[in-house]
Amino acid sequence: MELPWQDELCCDSPSAHLTKEGESTHTPETNRSDSNPPHHPLCSFRSSTTRSHPPDPSGGTCLDILCKIDENWENLICELQSHGPPSTTKAAGVMAISLQSVSIFTFVRSKKEENDGNTPYDNPVICKAEVPFMCSVVLDATTSFVTVVTVSLNDAISPSVLLRIPPRPVRPSPPVNLSHIQTIKAELILQWDDPPHSDTGRLRYEVRHSPNTTHPAWQVVSVPEEPRLSLELKPELTYTIQVRSSGLDKPPLWSEWSERHHIYLYSVSYIPQTVVARSGENVTMYCVFNDHSMNASTATWMLNLNPNQTLNRSLYHPLNQWVSKITFRPSETQMYAVLQCKTKNWTQAQSRIYVEGAYIKINCETSGDIDAMECSWTNTLYTNPKIRYRWADLPCDVMEKREQRGEEVGQTGPPWPSCLPFLRTMKTKCTFQPLRMNCYKLWLEVPSLLGPIRSKPIYLTPTDHVKPHAPTNVKAVTRSSGVLNVTWEPPSLPSDGLQCQFRYQAPSAVRAQPEWKVQSPVRERWAEAVVSDMCRVYVVQARCMHTKGTGYWSEWSDSVYSTPQNSRAPERGPDFWRILQDDPHRNQTNVTLLLEHLQISMRSYCVDGFIVQYQPLSGSVRREQMELASSYSFQWNQVPQTVTVEAYNNLGSSANNINMTLEKQPKRE
């Protein structure tokens, strides 16, 4: 018989009891005389009785017998249970069951000895007890054999039943590589792999899961053959999941449970969670609502965690009740974007989009000494890209064309260490020093689980990106011809030519911001601008850049102030008037001189200011210099003296001046 084996055993009414009423034992016995079956058994199995001669249990006892191998394939277990009411079982008294395991070879030989009148088997396992009870025999783990089962009830003995015991199957190793995916049909699929080098043949599986990791209440699901299972899990709970496997033997010999796999579902999931798109390409993503109280028909999509950047509804639509589909084109100037969808509130989960080949503007500036190059860029959302480069001793157009043909050109530089982030401006600056000439290929790189993401490369030559030093020794002169002449000393690098320009403005107390007038660049060391007033002071600055127009303008030089180019000293001093105000208490008089505005247009000189000279009748002469003004005040001690006002510039003072005599007037009576 094959296992598991189940049958009904019916025995005639007993004529005597083997033991006293209520006596029960489970002790295995090896007494050969107790196991000798009678020549004419009074018990029969239903499966071995023909329909024409069914067993007649009237006045007798019928029992259910089940023999099976335990789940660890260590024991053969036979269970006996009463087929009738409890009173029938009690009347049956003590039963005995004999289990004898022998190899196939021993069994065949014993059959021959039995025919010769010899005792067939040794050392059976015998159990005695009242029904219901169970009896077991230990299995041999290495060979196939048969077990002879004999049941006796009082004087009635059943025919022997031969149960074929197959060899113990190999216990498989537990499954490996547990993972899970979600489908656009809102299915959550758990999948796994069979262990490597598994030779147990076809397998079946059991999956258990529980949302409580401390005191798990396992829910077990049978999985026939296919190493995958669709799960229905609640969102916002952490599930622990394990899988075990067995061959197709009965009973199954299960492997140990696999390593634990954990699944946490947000109320919203994304398919795919992360995607890499080429610059300029559309991407399609799916939003799966694990909270089934939500509905995809009311979904809203948002870009870059900004509620003000909700996407147009024409870009997305519900695929089914719990899945929303969107197709859109990410920005070509960002390497990274974030997508979210919602029906009620925004959730923590998000999908990530990396853009391969995005155009990120990298600004490079070579120092005025052409010994270092500083490159900077503005970081994109939530990324911190690193700069990478290759260098080749080739013109950039040649390097680019050869790379487009698939050639590997030049040398790869190490990850650059001298980079500084500027959090306030979201910029990063890196310095290349020492600096190589010819062509650099630069790009930005962002790490991701899908591999490094690279921006569109740029090709540049450091000498095309020079920011020279500011010019020095700047001088500005206004001439009588009505021009402002500016000269400078340009920087020495780059050595293959510079162009420079200057700007000027007239300071004003009225304007808050200066109004600069910028002149066109020239390749000389000087330039001129027409001005309306040669005597006015102008603020002047100069700067330079490469003659090819590549690179950057230098910083403006320090400001200088223009000076007029006078041909001679002023011709005369200003005319003036006086106002006297006596102070009788101090015996002094306050004198205010009202000065004439000198008209000097169409002349070849300027007046820088005035000199006031005091000459008493006796004593030394005193001179005070002042800027151009319309009045001047001083204290007079009423001692007679002569006051003269001269006009001056850098070439001297006027000789033709007006004198005024101050003397005390007698009081009128």
Write a structural description:
The protein has 669 residues and is mainly β. The protein has six domains: 5-165, no CATH class; 176-264, Immunoglobulin-like, CATH 2.60.40; 268-356, Sandwich (Immunoglobulin-like); 363-465, Immunoglobulins (Immunoglobulin-like), CATH 2.60.40; 472-564, Immunoglobulins (Immunoglobulin-like, Sandwich); 576-662, Immunoglobulins (Immunoglobulin-like, Sandwich), CATH 2.60.40.10. Helices cover 4% and strands 43% of the residues. It has three helices and 50 strands. 26% of the residues are buried. Mean pLDDT is 85; it is low at 16-39. Keywords: Glycoprotein, Immunoglobulin domain, Membrane, Receptor, Signal, Transmembrane, Transmembrane helix. Residues 18-32 have a biased composition (Basic and acidic residues). Residues 171-268, 470-566 form the Fibronectin type-III domain. It is found in: Membrane.
